[in-house]
Write a structure and sequence with these properties.
It contains 4 helices and no strands. By secondary structure, it is mainly α. It has one domain. Helix 1 packs antiparallel against helix 2 and helix 1 packs across helix 3. The longest helix has 13 residues. The radius of gyration is 13 Å and the shape is elongated.
């Protein structure tokens, strides 16, 4: 089984948040697309329930938040 370091995981999450598809991320970083999906889901599961207003406002303005990351229908 192949393990990936934190830098690869961070790159994958950054690309995903920028709108790159899971399959494209897997090709760019040479990792399994299911691993990328697992990392994204783990990240979403660990987002705090309440974020400070400044963080939410910035995320909305940047277009990062357009959905509820905890909703099952939005899961990768």
């Amino acid at each position: 089984m192949r393990g990936y370091d934190d830098d690869v995981r961070l790159q994958a999450l950054t690309l995903f948040l920028e709108g790159v598809s899971l399959r494209m991320i897997s090709r760019i970083l040479d990792v399994n697309h299911q691993s990328v999906a697992n990392w994204v889901n783990t990240f979403a599961d660990n987002v705090p329930e309440e974020l400070p207003d400044s963080v939410l406002e910035t995320a909305v303005l940047d277009g990062l938040i357009t959905f509820n990351p905890r909703a099952k229908r939005n899961r990768v």
